[in-house]
Specification:
This protein is of the alpha+beta class. It has 3 helices and 8 strands, in the order βαβββαβαβββ. The protein has a single domain, classed as 2,3-Dihydroxybiphenyl 1,2-Dioxygenase, domain 1, CATH 3.10.180.10. The longest helix is centred in the first third of the chain and has 12 residues.
Length: 152
């Protein structure tokens, strides 16, 4: 099973973006939680970012991402500006879904640094300019918080 889980949008000012998206989508801004995260590229480069999920209906969300340290996301923002950053698909079998993407000549760009593979990224150079992400089914709770049970 593969389903669109969220659309990632890179932003310069996370709080302003949250206000704008919540207003436009009719979402209660007070219910949105800003979180901090880390990502490690395939080359071992680690970056930090703040992010928030905005529900957009039918279980699909918009993830607003603001890089807070140097790394691939900051370089993307500096080079291309704000906008569409990635498409994330939720999968029930990470191993077979990853293999399927690699068989389609879309190589891994990096994965989360949490020890157990629950999220991987595929290089946009090989996916028609779009960074693709696979996330393990159940990795995110309905409010966008990471589910600790996904690591068991």
């Amino acid at each position: 099973m593969i389903r669109l889980h969220h659309v990632g949008v890179v932003v310069k000012d996370l709080r302003s973006a949250i206000s704008k998206f919540c207003c436009a989508l009719g979402v209660d801004e007070g219910k949105i939680v800003v979180r901090r995260g880390q990502y490690s590229s395939k080359s071992g480069e680690t970056e930090e970012f703040e992010y928030a999920f905005i529900p957009s209906g039918n279980g699909t969300m918009i993830e607003l991402v603001m890089p807070t340290s140097e790394g691939p996301t900051m370089r993307f923002l500096n080079k291309r500006g704000e906008g569409l950053f990635h498409l994330a698909f939720e999968v029930d079998d990470m191993r077979s879904a990853t293999k399927r993407f690699e068989e389609a000549d879309i190589p891994l760009a990096g994965e989360n640094i949490a020890g157990k593979t629950v999220s991987v990224f595929f290089h946009p150079k090989h996916a028609h300019g779009v960074l693709l992400q696979l996330v393990k089914e159940g990795l995110f709770l309905p409010d966008g918080e990471i589910n600790p049970e996904a690591f068991t």
